[in-house]
Amino acid sequence: MLQHLSLLILSMSFACSGPKSTDQELKGHYENEQKKPLAKYETYIGKQSLVPEYENGIKQVFINEDLVIPRGFNTNETKGLAKAIIDAGSELVLLSNDERAAEGLGSPDFENLRNEVGYWFMDKVLLKSMGELGIDSLWTRDYFPLLPVDNAGNPVLIDFNYYPHDILGEMIPKTLEDQTGLPRVSLPIYAEGGNIIINDDGLCLMSDSILMENSQVKVEGDKALSRAEITTFYKQYVGCKDLKFFPIMPYEGSQHIDIWAKYISNDTILVHDLQERTLLTMNSKYRSRGKEIQTFLRARQADLKALGLKVKTIPMPAPYFDLGNEGSDYEYELISILSFINGLIINGTIIFPDYIQNNDADGNDIPMSDIQYYSDYKKSISSTVGDEGFKAVFINADNIVGLGGAIHCVTKESRVRLFAD
Question: Which of 29, 200, 286, 354 could connect to 394 by a Cys-Cys bridge, CB 3.0–4.6 Å?
Answer without folding.
Answer: 354
